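Entry 12.
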Amino acid sequence: MLHDILAFRHQLNSVSKGLAEMMDVTQHQFEILMLVNHFGGGPGISIGEVSAKTHRVVAYVAAETSKLVGMGLLTKHQDERDGRRTLLRMTPEARDRLAAIRPFQCEVNDVLFSALTAKDFAALRSIMQKLAQCGQEAQTQIEYRVRQHRHAKA
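Predicted 3D structure (tokens):
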């Protein structure tokens, strides 16, 4: 089973990389743009929320979002309700680029999940949310063990 998961991960990675290239951004920038597009309606989505959803550290997300701002694809503004938070929104340019690839993205997504019924897809989504949490805990544990290993070798 693990090998099937790894194979699908590589396939998803390849698809994501291709879609990112079609938008002239990196794969991680594409992931951020997709999250901002999905969750950034209304006032926007915070860098911390993007960090939590991508399972990446805030500093990395902040650096990548700054690049996207520089490319004219995101805007940053202060949250009117909480001035400590910076919110992200897509620019018209980003929406145009996303609209240009959307037909191909939908076609590829349909192929990616063509073996699943709607019920299967809902179950997979639930399972993946649980596995992402377990994966985060496993990542924390292995990082701790690696630090111990390095310390023991020093």
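Annotation: Residues 2-115 form a domain with the Arc Repressor Mutant, subunit A fold (CATH 1.10.10.10). The radius of gyration is 18 Å.
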